[in-house]
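REQUEST ID: PR-0412
SUBMITTED BY: lab tech R.K.
PRIORITY: routine
TASK: structure prediction, single protein chain
INPUT:
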Amino acid sequence: MTIRSLAPILLSCAAGAALAAGLAAQTPNQQTLTLSQPTQPATVNVSLFTGAITVRAGAAGTVTVTATPENSKDVLPTPPAAAPPGMHLLNSGGAFSALEKDNHVTISTSMRAGIAELTLQVPASSSLNLSTMKGAITITGISGELSVQTVNGDIQLEQVGGSILAHALHGKIIATVTQLGPKPSAFSSLNGDIDLTLPAAAQANLRLQDDRGGIYLDDGFHFVPTANTPGPAGLKPMPPMPPMPPAPPNLNALNSQLDALKTQTDVLKASGIFNGPAVAGTLNGGGPELRIQDFRGNVYLHQAK
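STATUS: complete
OUTPUT:
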């Protein structure tokens, strides 16, 4: 075969590779939002029925959302075209909805979106309000007010700072906190360990409770107990978690899940579930309140090395 006869084949292969690359670029789906006030912190709200949520620190002034499909061969719906002259688009379309107003970004999906994971890049000083019915939540390098909850999944917080509310109903929580915020922080789980690493000099007023597991504290911390009360009276109630997104009509299975979640949450809030001894004390002289409640797992407080 001559070089001349090979040319059409090579051109055909190159075209096929370019087409494949173009298709790959469409999956996962991605959208970037510019903040109204790029120099100011953002507040990002994400509600999923199913799917993992991963958030990393990104460029200032923008929020980038990437949706990964459940099946790698799937191509998620693409956003609608630009609005015709004299009109503006009211929805973002595509596999998810992402809207920004006054530095508040709201991201949501439908049940049938087929999304396995939403990955966000946000300014490092953002505040986050994240919830999913089924999926893990991972946050890396964010310092702001964090409110995170999952029903069936783990929570992993890496190098985060600020005031934190984290609740994993059926999952474990692993968190490395660089600095506690001035407001109270709280971590709770029904069926998983809570493993928290704090700076060596972290100061906090600790309120700890574990019904069927142990509470373990690194020897390096200066901890002075102030109370060891049997029963739930030794702890203040956990702060209320943000409500899960409402169920679409005529979805009996989802309604049942939401009803079960409400029941379990009510049980968690009731004074009868956390019957183990409550431990309270000051860490390195005291500071913002840090509450940890667990039912069937262990609690570990580590000192960062």
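NOTES: The radius of gyration is 23 Å.
REVIEWED BY: pending
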